[in-house]
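ok so I'm stuck.
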Amino acid sequence: MRLHRTFKRLLSVLSIRRRLFVTSSVHTLLTKGLLTIVMVAVLAASCGSGTQNDHSAVPDESDGWTVAQSDPDAKWLPILATQDIAVGVKRIAFSLDGLVGDDEPPTVRVSLFALDEDREAPRSVQYARFISYDPEVKIAAHGHANASVSDRSLPIGRGVYVVPVQLASAGLWGVRLDMSSDDREESVRLRFSVRERQAAPRVGERASSIDSRTRDDVATLSELTSDPDPEPGLYAISIAEALAEDRPLLIAFATPAFCHSQTCAPVLEAVKAVWREFASDLNGIHVEVFQNPDDPSRLVEAVAFTAWRLPSEPWVFVIDSDGVIRYAFEGAVTEAELRSAVEWVVQDGTG
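replied:
not stuck anymore, here's the structure
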């Protein structure tokens, strides 16, 4: 019976893939990758009841980092939201399946392990910060030119947890998530692979110069962005033009209307607010993920988005006046975080 419930739980999670809004660049990643993430990442949850779990049907790994969830009745199931994980400082994000309605988000303590070296002693222990989804943000019905799946389902949970970690080497890493609320405690182990180099541009690299489209290239801004309330100043110059100027640059790759994680719209709002505050010292650009946001039935990825090798959306970069990337945010980012990054680059100039 316990194995049967575990199997049903895994099937429930795997069905999420069919209900996500995806861009064509991340469809393959989600199709093939979510199975790996869930099967390799969901592990040994317990409700704090003190009951011994039966591990007779799971792989023979005695250290707890097994491909199993030992308590199928656990309330919260973490899902890794960060896709581009490589050596260096990385902002890991995860959501909780089971966190719904008016539930108070549990406190989550994150212990980081380098599994190829030491599966017992954590490299760091810290608390994750919860960023709630805006309940007003909706996803528009759409399709993709490559026939990837799209529907009206919502993302998992009510928000995303973020925590910065230092990943010193490539290989297998893991986090133990100790989750607690007023009446419940659970612990789950999540493991993931770290590559030597991430797909997206990295901090310290020069930003890629490309002639992205501007408001001068179109009749209306609806041809450039799916933002229902666009800031015209973010479409005034191309990436190439901005990098040629001796000014820092704030650039967001986001698709507010079609974002599968529902984080693009609030991230773009944060970008707009911060850019308006620093417009005299900073260029700002929004690049819509899709080339044709005004034709949602057959969306095609924008040239600038693919040129920057971005495996997901949204991404926000803060670039200094020398054209070097100083901050890179994958997924949800708050206005306060973004303001702090921009202030640092504007004040320091070249970083």
